[in-house]
Design a protein that fits this description.
Layout (H helix, E strand, L loop, with lengths): L11 H11 L6 E2 L16 H13 L12 H12 L8 E6 L1 H16 L4 E6 L3 H9 L3 E6 L10 H8 L7 E5 L12 H14 L2 E6 L8 H12 L5 E6 L12 E6 L3 H18 L6 H11 L1 H33 L6 H4 L4 E3 L4 H11 L1 E2 L5 E3 L7 H11 L3
Parallel strand pairs: 1-10, 3-4, 3-5, 5-6, 6-7
Antiparallel strand pairs: 2-8, 7-8, 9-11
Helix pairs in contact: 2-10, 2-11, 3-10, 4-5, 7-8, 10-11, 11-14
Bound molecules: 4'-deoxy-4'-aminopyridoxal-5'-phosphate (PMP).
């Protein structure tokens, strides 16, 4: 039977990682994969995570199954982190998932169960895995304009115009903060305008929030999500702890479904548990438990926030350095958008042949759509990248 399988398209980012590995040039620079790296190029375990893991090792006396929706303490802690007091807790159904990817997958499945004809509106561009999973599930996708290649910012008028064509029963997928792959984000009044369109059309928002704390701060990065969640009757939120807790491989995420009455909440809660059961049964617990311990312990929480803030400021500083260096070398402000972007990524807006030239001529690796991981830079490589960008004619 296996001969019937068809080769699947290779994941472009993983293929890029392999090419980087095979490149013998010592001066090569990896701006590809979406993992935070400190200026030494390492992705260390965060201090609070290590401390919580040590405590867990000492005190955990069983590894028996938890619940199908994971530990309710984890749900409570993460709902609090993402939503604050924006939404009545009694209206939020939640289930732990394997990472933010798992949360997105379960959210799409929930939508499909509720309405197999639902269309999902996605930003152009969006995280490629959104498209890949939606296509795998056979769901209809509608693109809405998002990135303005000219300005490096959001094409807000285009976005609103496209979202107006959504109908009741459609889903609008939004990035809560730190848009991947562009780095361009909505300000709060733009979020409000999106809320108005959602209310007018009756479309259901789904917010993917995978970088809370990487942009303008933990509270600031959740502001758009909180505004939407508190303004519309139904909302889905897929949250990831991979980046802000640095626990990528522990697969820690939460899917939240907000509705308007306790009966709908119960139905959502039961459906989320059912969907987990069908796909993987019990969600992973280790990362979720570590996150819960950190969020519930004042000292650990304070230390985690401090380290996360260092990470955020390091990336912000690199953005500014790169924008300044390009300004200095090119004598123009056309790269100023790099300092305005937030999160780990920026889309440079370069054509694929330029991205290839950066790789072949300079050993600089970024994704083909010119998305670069800002955290792949440091004080030494910023000037090298700036020079190379101008060298290849971007
Ligand atoms: N959503 C977006 C937009 C992302 O960039 C990512 C990570 N690349 C995720 C979700 C999910 O990440 P994970 O499954 O590792 O938590």
């Amino acid at each position: 039977m296996f001969e019937n399988l068809k080769a699947q398209p290779a994941d472009k980012i993983l293929a890029l990682m392999q090419m980087y590995k095979n490149d013998p040039r010592p001066s090569k620079i990896d701006l590809g994969v979406g993992v935070y790296k400190n200026p030494q190029g390492l992705t260390p375990v965060m201090r609070a995570v290590k401390a919580a893991e040590q405590e867990l090792w000492k005190t955990q006396d069983t590894k028996t199954y938890v619940g199908l929706a994971g530990d309710p303490g984890f749900s409570d802690a993460l709902i609090d982190l993402v939503l604050g007091d924006a939404v009545d807790r009694d209206l939020v159904a939640a289930a732990a998932t394997p990472g933010g990817t798992g949360a997105c997958r379960q959210a799409f499945e929930l939508v499909r169960m509720a309405d197999k004809d639902a269309r999902v509106f996605v930003s152009d561009p969006t995280w490629p895995n959104h498209l890949s999973i939606l296509s795998y599930l056979g769901m209809q996708v509608v693109n809405y304009r998002y990135f303005d290649d000219e300005t490096g910012g959001v094409d807000f008028d285009g976005m609103i115009e496209d979202l107006k064509s959504a109908k009741s029963g459609d889903v609008v997928l939004l990035h809560g903060c730190c848009h991947n792959p562009t780095g361009a984000n909505l300000n709060l009044s733009e979020w409000q305008a999106v809320v108005d369109v959602l209310r007018d059309t009756g479309a259901v928002p789904m917010i993917d929030i995978a970088y809370q704390g990487f942009g303008d701060g933990l509270e600031e990065d959740a502001a758009g999500t909180r505004l939407v969640a508190s303004s519309v009757p139904e909302c889905l939120i897929a949250a990831s702890c991979s980046k802000n807790f640095g626990i990528y491989r522990e697969r820690t995420g939460l899917l939240m479904a907000i509705s308007q009455d306790p009966d709908a909440r119960k139905l959502n809660q039961d459906t989320l548990a059912f969907l987990n059961r069908q796909n993987f049964s019990f969600p992973p617990d280790h990362g979720a438990r570590v996150v819960t311990m950190i969020l519930q312990d004042e000292a650990l929480r304070t230390d985690w926030k401090a380290e996360l803030e260092d990470v955020r400021l390091t990336m912000l500083d690199l953005r500014q350095q790169l924008a300044d260096e390009l300004q200095k070398l090119s004598g123009s402000d056309r790269f100023g958008f790099l300092a305005q972007h937030r999160g780990m990524f920026s889309r440079l807006g370069a054509a694929p042949d330029k991205v290839e030239a950066l790789r072949t001529e300079h050993g600089i690796y970024m994704v083909g759509d010119s998305r670069m991981n800002i955290a792949g830079l440091n004080g030494e490589t910023v000037p090298i990248l700036a020079k190379a960008i101008l060298d290849v004619g971007i």
